[in-house]
Amino acid sequence: MPPSQVSSRTGSEQRGLPNLDEQQAKIKEHDGLTAVIQGDKKPTVLLADGDADMRESVQRLLQKHYRVIAIANGQEALDAVLREIPDLVLADITMPVLDGLGLLTALRSNPATQVIPIVLMSARAGEESRIQGFQSGADDYLTKPFTHRELLARVGARLALSKLRKEPVERERDQRRKAEMAEEELRILQRLGMTLSAELDLKKLVQAVTDAGRELSKAEFGAFFNNLIDSDGEKYQVHTLSGAPLEAFEKFGLPSNTSLFGPTFRGECAIRIDDVYEDPRYGKNAPFYGMPPGHLPVRSYLAIPVISRSAEVLGGLFFGHREVGVFTERAERLIEGLARQAAVAIDNARLYERAQRETEERKRAEGASVLLAAIVQSSDDAIISKDLNGMITSWNRGAEQIFGYTAEEAVGQPVTLLMPPERVNEEPEILRRIRSGERIEHYETVRSHQDGTRLDISLSISPLFDNQGQVVGASKIARNITDRKRMEATLLKAHGLGVAGRMAASIAHEINNPLEAVTNLLYLMRSDVKSEIGIKYLATAEAELARVAQITRKTLAYYRDTSKPESLDLSTLITETLSVFVKKIGNKEITVVRTDQLCLVHGFKGDLLQLFSNLIANAIDAVSQGGRIDISVSTSGEAAVVAVHDNGAGIAPDHKSKLFEPFFTTKEQHMGTGLGLWISREIARKHGAEIAVESSTDASSHGTTLTVTFSNREPAGA
After folding, report:
1. Rounded alpha-carbon distances, angstroms, from residue 172 to 85, 110, 307, 418, 685
2. Fewer Cβ close by (within 10 Å): the C or N end of the chain?
3. Are 612 and 577 in contact (CB under 8 A)?
């Protein structure tokens, strides 16, 4: 046998093995050809031969030019191919477990392996054996023994042919993949374009951009951060996330102005890194010097600034992936284009939001103006505005009722139109104080009605400011207090009389509360008496006037009440009494706290209303501005108890024994007659009740409690 031939042993066949060193020396001349076929990377050849000597001999011949995987039987060869597809399979027909033809059939029936070049080897020569091999799907057939040249030539040719076949297929596959990628990118961009053109909600808009950027870049997760800088110049607020839940960012706080994040938020450049762990800018900042424990895994990193048309850096788009080398130059260009689109859309959305806010603010302002105008027009007080020259610029319906002039007659006239000659000199001082921005509260003066009648007026005047904070005029509220002044004058005259005067003062005191109630109710009830509230106030006014008449008759004609007593609910009586003092309580901003229990007593309604009216009036006078009054109705055994507590200054201990004496008062001069508690005790005794007083002047617990205990309580449901 020529030394250039390779021999093998299969079954009972015996052939001599060639000198391998000699064979390897002879194939050096083929190195150039195999290198051209192989390229820089060695192709993989799977060698399957049951003859160990033959397998080792062929492996040594091939492994200088190829990466060789040597297998002893067909089944192991099949398993090895399925684990790693080689570039060529060189298999002997005669093998244990699974022969070469079985291996060939299995590989050709599998779509993943059916195009692998397969060269069969056999010691059986002849045309019939070759035909059988080719019919089974073999690409070539080597008859043992074969020379090393033939082996290398056959293997090299099959690999070269396979490469030539693969190249157009791979090119076509690559072109198809690129086309599909471009089509997918176009679909994403078209979808995003439709969203950006139609969506004006900033949150939804930025979310769509972030989602599209993650898809286009093949990122695992992405985020858009607003470019909001805190007082330290470092913090940035996350706006949207994609591919990861918000919780993945919340526990790590906001990104800092590091060498990786900073350039993006400053709008300097795009940053694309294949592996952040290898980047010299990574891991330079405390406290973690890198990503904190539990952070989303980021190896590939892409960051693009989002810059508006006005060159304002709106924020940044950030994308990451746990694998290295994910982001390509094409991905960077796509995200840069996306960022430009996003900037325009964000600008438009912000403009829209600003316009919406301005529209809403304008609507609210217009609504407030309409409401304010309605309030002004419906007020019973005169509400008048004037400029800094004292010329009237607005005039409400209340001003018409008080002063008699219509709006057409008053607007454009000097406000001195309303002043008696002796009061005209007040106006310059009022204007001076208004120009300095000063408010004038409850200034009592005299003004004139159109018919010349003098009116006692309480004025509150406020400066009016323009958008720049400059005083441009004044608004005044004028309240007619003529009736109140007249009543005060009457009471003052009554106070100076002797014994008869004291009795007259007693009458005046008892008339004063219902008259004040009538004044309050007439103030609340003007023109709209058809409403439910108007009817209620009128009914209350009629009841109070009836009580005034009753008191007058009692006092002046020694009239004794012949009306019959009735079953009365004390809580209801308290409610009716409080309705008389609504205005007075509101003016002093008093908090009234009630605790009610169903308590029925047998008595005279007019007397009991007078009793509770005196107690509550005293409490109102006792508390300061913003004070508190507690009123409770409760039971104690068989008795009914009404307690009125105020948090006023309290009563001095040496005054307590004199509280129920006639004409004794602790109020300021002209504020009381000293008859209220005396009369209240007489009414209580008439109903079998007693009045007790507790008071403290201590700084931590000051106040007074007046308690009325009725012994004749009726059982509920009686």
Report:
1. 21, 22, 40, 99, 115
2. C
3. yes
In the chain, the amino acid numbered 84 is E
* CA–CA distance, 482 with 484 (Å, rounded to integer): 5
Q: How far is CA 402 from CA 384, 457, 462, 479, in A?
A: 12, 10, 20, 8
**Other C-beta atoms lying within 10 Å of the C-beta of residue 16:** 11
Q: Which residues of 341-370 are buried (b: 16+ CB within 10 A; e: fewer)?
A: bbbebbebbeeeeeeeeeeeeeeeeeeeee
Closest to 217 in 3D by CA, of 282, 270, 291, 265: 270
Alpha carbons 710 and 684: distance in angstroms, whole number? 8
Are residues 502 and 663 in contact, defined by beta-carbon separation less than 8 angstroms? yes
Q: What integer is the mean pLDDT of 561-577?
A: 82
Calpha distance 622→649 (Å, rounded): 7
- Spatial distance between the Cα atoms of 159 and 130, rounded to a whole number of angstroms: 20
Nearest Cα to Cα of residue 286 among 318, 260, 258, 262: 258
| 709: number of Cβ within 10 Å | 17
Q: Are the CB atoms for 155 and 119 separated by under 8 Å?
A: yes
Percent of the chain with pLDDT over 70: 75
Greatest C-alpha distance within the chain: 165
pTM for the model stands at 0.37
Burial class (CB in 10 A: 0-12, 13-18, 19+), 67: middle
CA 527 to chain centre: 46
> What CA–CA distance (Å, rounded) separates 692 from 295?
75
Least confident piece of the model among 178-192, 320-334, 425-439, 677-691: 178-192
Classify residue 142 by its DSSP letter.
Answer: E
Q: Which of 571, 598, 601, 597 is closest to 714 using CA atoms?
A: 601
The answer to whether residue 21 scores a pLDDT higher than 90 is no
For residue 95, give the nearest of 128, 59, 52, 140 by alpha carbon.
Answer: 52
Contact 598, 716 (CB under 8 A): yes
H or E element: which one contains 654? none
Measuring CA to CA, which residue among 336, 339, 319, 310 is closest to residue 206?
A: 339
Residue 418 tokens, joined = 């309303």
Do 136 and 104 contact (CB within 8 A), yes or no? yes
Omega before 653 within 30 of 0, i.e. cis: no
The answer to whether the CB of 221 falls within 8 A of the CB of 241 is: yes
Of 540, 561, 551, which is closest to residue 614 (Cα–Cα)? 551
Closest-CA residue to 675 (of 583, 631, 610, 578): 610
Residues 330, 199, 266, CA angle at the centre, nearest 5°?
A: 50
Span 608-630, average pLDDT: 90
Residues 504 and 507: their CA atoms lie apart, in Å, by: 5
